[in-house]
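User: Show me an example of a complex going from sequences to structure tokens.

Assistant: Sure. Here are the input components:
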Amino acid sequence: MGILNLVTYIPLIGAIVILFFVRKENGKAIRYTATAFAVIDFIVSLYLWFNFDPHGTGTHLFQFRETYSWIPSLGVQYDFGIDGISLLLILLTTFMGIIAVVSSYSAIDHRQKEYYILLLLLQTGMIGTFCALDFFLFYVFWEIMLVPMYFIIGIWGGPRKLYAAIKFFIYTLSGSVVMLLSILALYFFNDGGIPFLNIKGLGNPATFSVLQYHNIGHLIPPQLQFWIFIGFFLGFAIKVPMFPFHTWLPDAHVEAPTAGSIILAAVLLKMGTYGFVRFALPILPDATKQLIIPIVVLSIIGIIYGALVSLVQKDMKKLVAYSSVSHLGFVMLGMFALNPMGLKGSVLQMINHGISTGALFLLVGIIYERRHTRMISEYGGLAKQMPMYATLFLIAALSSMGLPALNGFIGEFTILLGAANRSIVWASFASVGIVLGAAYLLWLYQRVFWGPLDNPANKTLLDVNRRELGLLLALVVIMVWMGIKPAVFFDVIEEPVNYVVRKVDPAYFDKRPIEYPPAAPVVVSAVETTR
Amino acid sequence: MTWNDFIYLLPEIVLTIGASALLLAPVVGGRTTLPAKWMMLVLLALTAVSLIACSHAVEVIDQSRQLQAMFALDAFAIFFKLLFIAAIAMLVLLSDDFLAESRYSPWEYYSLLAFALCGMMFMASGVHLITIYIGLELLSLSSYILAGFYKSELKSTEAAMKYFILGAVSSGILLYGISLIYGVCGSLNLLDIAAAMSTIITNDALMFGIMLLGAGLCFKIAAVPFHVWTPDVYEGAPTPIAAFLSTASKAAAFSIFARIFYVGLHDFHLEWNYVLATISALSMILGNLAALTQDNVKRMLAYSSIAHAGYILLGVISLNALGLRGILVYSIVYVFANLGIWATVLMLRRNQYAGERVDDFEGLSRRAPLWAFAMIIFLLSLGGIPPTAGFIGKYFLFAAAVQAGFGWLAVIAVLMSAVSMFYYLRLVVAMYLREGVEAEFAITTPLKIVAGVCLIVTLALGILPAPMIDQVIISSSHVAARAALTPHAGR
């Protein structure tokens, strides 16, 4: 049992321990056991961070590989391995796992045992999804995640929880089953082909290995690539969610309990973008290039639409939910700039969004626990009553809107650079989104925290307690760390991003304009001929 | 017929003698004190043992494992026969309390069930349309009576009547189709039919025959548009019989579907596969959509079984090795998940009486948490969500359809399986998410055993499917070879 399996299954073990060894009535023991396992998982995942070789390329790009035979007759392997992108996402997952567990201490007061079991199961599903290098295995983990999240929304959610839970489930399931068909098409292309449709296969041994698909992707005829891409797109875009597939998101977020929202925003949405980076782009280069414009248009619509809708929300949680649509539009935009800059920004922004939106959901959850309303109009002047809370909220909001020295800025700026490198038009649309982002967050802040403290119900509100403060400070530290020392993170994702770029456009690094020293014409022509 | 020939039929002979004995037992023994249930289980065990023994004996004496070109005891037949015996054994356990509560004789009931099993075993072995037809009729006649087993209840009688009239008509259609095929091909042995078909071009009489045969078979698996009887019969029939009709009896129909179309009619697949594809698509769409609005669980399961017939048809349509394996895998998966759900329905009570509405599940998670968990696994399995066995089954069928170039059908299938989660989740919602009426139920040991077995099988086959798949590959190889399928590359 290797380290990746350990990281994946520690939460599962925790769930089993709670199931069998902790009594239902003993809420404290349940909470502490869950926390202990979440913390252990995080610590074990730190081992990955310290032992990861950021300069690994080629066969060493994916590290900590663990391969076992699973269903040999179908060519299915139990194959785990991570590159820098998965590494960051796994760390995000284990970290936010602690936040989610600890933030539920007081929010969840009934059926605690089931709740923490499901939260831990969900974590196993998420980490497994990021580790899997076998498409079949990936799909299994991908679907497993749905069930715990469905219950978390459905049992501990708000008034319309049933509707939100089923919408979440059916929406994402519909996308992923279509993705399954695309996986099958790849599988048959690698293997015997689909004779009936005159699709000749490569005749390789049957496999679901993602790395094998990376290698054969460019051999797939463009027509087939297009259809496979559509399948992937439906699966991933619903999860991201991209406009116009985003309608499940506000419902799920608003109804989910705080920890559910945190996990949903921080990790679950990244499944979609991760899917694009890991699968859709490198496996289907032609289709990717063919579909740049439609996807970028949808991303830009998402950025601006999400921001505009956030602007008019009366409910804080809904505002943050719609802001996710906007932020993930940025992620998609950066990704489809298809240059290292844009992709790096995109990957980093996935992490940033997880941290800052997770923090915002946590903050909204904290005030909701005290006042049982999320209506912005109910608040005002909270800065006087809850100074600490107000400060932390400000930092989280600034991080989310992309203030320099905090993490959001790095991601958004890099994405803009990448997008501008492609087309200045994309970048200018995206910058409108940044301005709107500042507008809705600052306006929210203004309405909630400034002005007179005239609602009597708010006059008795308590400031953050030590537990909440601890969680928020941990998040703030990461925001600042990523803001002032992003190089650490860029280092880790450098090679994976270059790998993806090279898969999409093998000649990309050859045709970079040579800047210093000015290239002699001879050299340029040499580059031209080697292309 | 020589003594050797009896080896092929020994399990069926044992079963027939046993079934007759069960029927006569109360007459001969007067008010016998022996519990019928145990006699039936012993009979099933004897049948299983003789089946395994005979299959080994046949393996030694005969390469082709066929008796007079009528009856095959090949790996395919053994696979299905063991599945049927297991399913019937579980049905016996399911019927226990139900029979104790009713005032009808358990001996007749078990005897009819044993005769039905005998019919199913003939179907699995049939390589000749007459053998298949006789097996099917034995199964159908027993089922008609079983559906009306509550003699004095109007609903049960109505169900039996509907089932009988429609079933008899469909048998007639089937027989007409068989006679037309005989007229053109000059034989009823599936291999001879295949050989005859490879030499003739298309032919109206033959086409008509194939269509009628297909229509008759589609009635038996309740595929749209031959499905109208299903919800009423499932609702009216005694619950264990509804369970029987939706699991074992259906699996038997799938086995002959696979054998007839793969071995007998594969040369003409271009003529029939679009028709079957349409039927499959309609079954998936209509079955799943109609199930959405049902409040009665038995009716919901009836529509869901219609949809599942549509999925299994994918395996027939695709006519490749994956599809054939898919039919076998899905039969196991479907039977076990469904039996688990039926066990739950049988367990529920409402005012001391059978609870079969979705509301009756409310609050089950708190009153019987383990059972509710098992129920989730069964429902997820029917919906095809990993890590349950249902996903592996659906994987095979969808993959077969994609490989065969039926992309559009695969798209319908996956989308409809997403839709199906909608109504499966309704039960989950009732069990877990609704807080209100507390479910009433009576958990008994036999029901526990059935649910436990189904749970273990459904989870084990979902997490570690490799042994089952290897077995299925072996079991289907004989039929696959007869159909001259190019096996799925890579294996």
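The lines above are the inputs; the final block is the predicted structure for all two components together. The beta strands of chain A are 63-71, 76-82, 193-194, 199-200.
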